[in-house]
Amino acid sequence: MEPKQEYLLLEGIKAGIILRVDTVFLESLPYIFSHWPYEVVSETTRETFATIERKQNGRYYFTSPYIDSDGSYRDSVNGICAIVAELAWQRLREDPSLLCIHGAGADFAGRLVVFPATRKAGKSTLSVAMAAAGIRMYTDDFLPVSVEDDGIIRGISSGVSPRLRLPLPDQIGEVARQFMAQRQHVSNKQYTYVKPLKTENASFGDALPLGAIVFLERKDGAKAEMAEISKAEALKTLIYQNFSRAGNAGDILAMLEFVASNLPLYLLRYDHAEPAIEVLKSEFSGWDSELPHYTPRAPLVNESEHGVRAFARYDEVSIGQFEHAADVQVVSTDGQRFLTGRNGQSIHYLNEGAALIWQILSEPTSVDEAVEILLAAFPEQAREQIEGDVLRCFTNFGKNGLLSKIESNMGQTPQNAEISVP
After folding, report:
1. Domain that holds residue 80
2. Same domain, 137 and 234
3. What phi and psi values does residue 310 have, to the nearest 5 degrees?
4. What is the pLDDT of residue 411?
5. Phi-psi region of 68 (alpha: psi -120 to 50; beta: other; left: phi over 0)
6. Cα Rg of the chain (Å, integer)
7. Is residue 46 part of a domain?
8. Residue 401's CATH number
9. Are 147 and 242 in contact (CB under 8 A)?
């Protein structure tokens, strides 16, 4: 018998999800959305943005006009994982003013400490261990961030139960194992969702000011200790772990640069979760500094309400002179640069070579001229290497609207062209 069609409606999300599933799937929902109010209804007037269906082969198929290919999942847990991920995107589609950081967030003395996701750093393991240690979790995976009217930047709880990859690592600690044994959970061979008690996890929509950013580095045998991290490295990671692609890149970069410049930044090296938590508790037992107040940037010329500006795109850059396009936003920190694309939806990190070429383009310059300038500055480098690097940079800059073509005086060499080498 084919499953009947129902609808999953979650608090704070305007559009729903079409369900054609079995009771196993429906019975899993309370374990995952433990702190996110929802209802399953047989009829609705709301729009929908996705469908999940269990077919006769026993697999679950997840479809949405926002994803390139349909997902096929062997059980309900993996199917719900797909829903959770797409819900994060849907929140941003419905409210582009939100920033969203891929990472965990925990309440320390009334402010959120954010742990951006990095590969195999133990973010989810540490999240469950923190919950077991009595620390109130706001998320273990994605953290929506908003700027309130008072200028305070706040992180918003997802209301989703923490998810752990199986088998459990030894580093999680005995306290967390006991915690999990005493809580309801739903699992498959790959993941387990642990359902916190009502007071152990923030509810959907709860918000706290951002207090600090802690990057995780888990290594076997490492002693738990905190170290400072540069603003440039922090900003680069925050940009990579941001997935607010519906928002304006200028707003995103400005806010992330503000966060990296005004919040404490740390790297936590550790092996086992319990000693790491003691270090965190000691460091964030209270807050001495006032909360920073962020002022959103003013819209640029010709910028629409969605941040998109009219811009010229150049696919052919080998002929003619170019210079910086107007209104490209540049953020420099610790000697490293980031640019926003004039499409309003891209952020570009400039490595050392690209930064030099961008500096050359502060005056009208052709590809050939830039090659000659760099060859003079770096005579030990092969011409073929420099030619390839320059053409790639010009091409990337041109396609992203970062350049303006000079329509007159073509072929003239920039006067007194110089570059500074770090």
Report:
1. 6-93
2. yes
3. -65, 135
4. 46
5. alpha
6. 25
7. yes
8. 3.90.930.70
9. no
Q: Quickly list DSSP for 363-408.
A: S-B-HHHHHHHHHHH-TTS-HHHHHHHHHHHHHHHHHTT-EEEE-S
pLDDT of residue 312: 73
The pLDDT of residue 246: 54
The 10 Å Cβ neighbour count of residue 75 is 19
Q: Are residues 124 and 80 in the same domain?
A: no
Does the residue 268 lie in any domain?
Answer: yes
Residue 393 lies inside a defined structural domain of this protein: yes
Greatest Cα pair distance, the chain, in angstroms, is 79
pTM for the complete prediction?
Answer: 0.80
Q: Which residues of the chain have pLDDT under 70?
A: 1, 243-248, 297-311, 341-345, 408-422
Give the other-Cβ count within 10 Å of 346's Cβ. 16
The token duo for 381 is 């480098």
| Shared domain check, 137 and 75 | no
Cβ atoms of residues 51 and 62 within 8 Å = yes
DSSP assignment letter at 185: E
Q: Which amino acid is at 180?
A: M
Phi first, then psi: what are they for 146, rounded to 5°?
-135, 155
Instruction: Answer yes or no: do 260 and 136 share one domain.
Output: yes
Q: Which amino acid is at 268?
A: L
DSSP-assigned letter for residue 46: S
What is the C-alpha to C-alpha distance for residues 207 and 346, in angstroms, rounded to an integer?
A: 27
DSSP for 186-238, please give it.
Answer: EE-SSEEEE---GGGBPPTT-EEEEEEEEEEEE-TTPPPEEEE--HHHHHHHH
Specify the pLDDT at position 298: 59
Instruction: Give the per-residue pLDDT at 417.
Output: 44
Report yes or no on 314 lying in a domain: no
Residue with tokens 């899993």: 28
